[in-house]
Structures are given as structure tokens and as C-alpha cells.
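Batch manifest, entry 17 of 40.
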Amino acid sequence: MKPLSKILLRDLWHLRGQVLAAALVVCCGVMAQVSMHSAYLSLEATQANYYDSYRFADVFANLKRAPESLADEIRALPGVAQVRTRVVADVTLDVPGLAEPATGRLVSIPEEQSPMINDLYLRSGRYIGAEHPDEVLLSEVFAQANKLEVETSSARSSMAAGGN
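Output type: C-alpha cells
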């Protein structure tokens, strides 16, 4: 063994605690990087799966007023698979138990449930029909936050989550 190699080994032996600590720090850093990257890939796959399952739109456009014929022009664009137009209006709601009025968002939905982009996921109840004009789909989070109870005997309301 060469003299320089002996000196190096002797110095490493005297610094073994520091060398071990540095190696452990590097190992922890590599482990954290690998675990964070795995978590990122898992979240990315979950997001893609959710977007596919509920046909979440890739592009949104808000217009104050536009003719329905504009939807046909958008459908004709290359790469457009589906177009969904709807009416959205913010309204003031008188919610029991709240001191001040709440702001709600009314979103139009088709008369019959069918697979569409930005689809709804019904957690309970059923989809509403035109024969019952006094029914609504209610956000589950909104109902829980405001302690609202849904009539289940006549299924007048349904809980919905996701999609919009």
C-alpha cells in the first residue's frame, strides 16, 4: 500500500463520525427526493384519472352573451372533441342560520343526464327532471357548511360534487 493511501485511510478513520454523518445526510436527501417525486407522480396520475372520469374540460371560456351558433363554430375547430354551453349566474341566497346573505352560483344542466364534459357526480339522491321544477342539485360542501338538510323522503334535492 502506498504511503498516501495509508494517510488517507488513517484520516478517514479519525473522521469516521463526520464522514458517516455526511453520508447519512446525503442518503436522507436522496430518500426525500425519491419519495417526493413518487408522491408527485401519484398525484399527477390521480388528477389525470379524475379529469378523464368526469370529462373535465381542458379549456374554459366565460362570455357575457354569445349566440348558440358560436358553439357550432367552436365544434368545427380542429382538435375540439366536445363543446358544452351553459348559463351561469351568481345570486344572493337567504340561508337559514347565516347573519348575512350568501352568494350562490346557479349553473344550468341538461334536462336528461348524459355523459358530458364537466360532468356531475351525484353522491346521493337522483338527477333532477323537468317534471319537477322545484328541485335542485346541491353542492354537498355547501350543504354541510351551512348545516342544510336535504329532503330524502320525496328526493326533492340531490347532493352533487365535482365537475363544476
